Amino acid sequence: MAHTLGLTEPANIELPKISFAAKEIDVAEWKGDLLAVGVTEKDMTKDENSKFQNPILKKLDGLLGGLLAEASFEEDFTGKAGQSLVHRLPGLGSKRVGLFGLGQSASSPAAFHGLGEAVAAAAKTAQASGVAVILASSECPSAMSKGNTAAAIVSGTVLGLYEDNRYKSESKKPQLKSLDILGLGTGPEIEKKIKYAEVVSCAIIFGRELVNSPANVLTPAALAAEASKIASLYSDVLSANILTEEQCRELKMGSYLGVAAASANPPHFIHLCYKPPSGPVKTKLALVGKGLTFDRFLLLVLNVLSGGYNIKTGPGCSIETMKADMGGSAAVFGAAKALGQIKPSGVEVHFIVASCENMISGKGMRPGDIVTASNGKTIEVNNTDAEGRLTLADALVYACNQGVEKIVDLATLTGACVVALGPSIAGVFTPNDDLAKELFQASEASGEKFWRMPLEESYWESMKSGVADMVNTGGRQGGAINAALFLKQFVDEKVKWMHIDMAGPVLNDKKQVATGFCISTLVEWVLKNSSS
Question: How far apart are CA 458 and CA 475, in angstroms?
């Protein structure tokens, strides 16, 4: 990424290389820095002599002279989700032994993903180089295969270990070099699942880094360059086409160009296309992401200052996080990166982002302006801050023109969806029940949270304009539904379409850093539509 302001350039930090392996060896014989045991509350049950009843815990405690049971009692460790207990105890080949709570029962990818994150945190603290993970319960939940369980642990470890230190002058490198997963079997199938988890996790990290990058670094041109790099890396299956402002004008993308007009940084319309390395294409899909690399988020009063400007906003409106307004595009390109490595057969995927900045200048849109989208529909701009949907309008028309059968668009679109669903759940809007079912099946594998919202057609009355085909915002009530109804106007009726409003989960609510949300789900969805 090339810097454009402030002489800021991200450091080129390589991701730590960790060797993951599934092994079947006796837990007492494993040698390393940290032996991590995932336990449920049931696993922590003890007999009348305060001895473990679980076979694995009983064996470990015997080798440790009863110290594990004693430590768990003294520190009130009961196996609740999020609890951890790590001690340096003599008697095993590992320097440290840790118990990590999984809750009442471990029945979802999220539980084992959380285990991986907790193990990564403990490995950081202990500066551990070699770690092993074993589950006290020998049987995986019926809903999850052992391979999927291992994959979730690997994904949690990779993402838990990762810290985005590219913009810090100093950073510590994690010491973890290897992680063995014990007791879940061995062989090609579980190895394939582990490799898949590594690929998707690295794609999620890529997406996080895009969202975390400040707007003075990640301009529309820089985002286009990052997308082009993906296509170059996997040129056997991916191609890139970056449309210039003039080319967008020829395609009559007035809605998109209206948003981009005020910025000194020109817009870049980004189109990546995945085609399988061999075999026929049976399904054509499109992933469309909102790509506002910065949104000036005007709410109250523009306060002109020496050397730049700042904008006074209402309570809870953090303009400094508006760099995350391209979270939809990060999800789309993260998925492209993963799919470029996985190479599914039988499916063609178009990754489309209308990237630009929403800024303030004498050339920018004014309230009351009318813009014309590339399908000929006219839009009265009654709110210049509802700009994301204007860029998506032309992106959706373009996607339909690629001859796709299904479209999923992703956007940090409305605060209304965050109010409705909170910071960790994305809203799903679609008139197609089958498409909704596909998405929710994909999310079961990824562990990400979605909730289907209504597309109440009667609300469209509030979106009608007296002088154009529509306005770009309706009333305050049902804001997320109104936004979805607006986008629906730019999708061909023959195309199955879904809108995902991810304004809440794009950032970690506590740390205010990117989550890489939806990348894993999108990859799963594409694979379910493939012949692989």
Answer: 13
Strand partners, 101: 39
Instruction: Dump pLDDT digits (tens) for 274-284.
Output: 999 999 999 99
Tell me, yes or no, if 312 is annotated catalytic.
Answer: yes
Of the residues 193, 323, 337, 389, which is catalytic? 389
Query: What is the SS3 assignment for 72?
Result: helix
Q: Is 347 left (phi over 0), alpha (psi -120 to 50) or beta?
A: beta
- pLDDT tens digits for 296-314? 654 433 433 333 333 435 5
Q: Do 388 and 295 form a contact (C-beta atoms < 8 A)?
A: yes
Q: Both 36 and 124 in a single domain?
A: yes
Which candidate, 93, 183, 172, 87, places its Cα nearest to that of 130? Answer: 93
Number of neighbouring beta carbons within 10 Å of residue 155 = 25
Whether 310 is in a domain gets the answer yes
Note down the domain range covering 36.
19-165+175-201
- Kindly report the number of other CB atoms within 10 A of residue 271's CB atom: 21
- pTM for the full model? 0.94
Number of domains composing the chain:
2
Buried b (16+ CB within 10 A) or exposed e, 65-74: eebbbebbee
* 212 falls within a domain: no
Q: Is 57 inside any structural domain?
A: yes
User: Which residues does the chain have with pLDDT short of 70?
Assistant: 1-4, 138-144, 296-321
Residue 339 resides in a domain: yes
Catalytic residue among 172, 192, 249, 312: 312
User: Is 166 among the residues known to form the active site?
Assistant: no
Both tokens assigned to 223: 């985002």
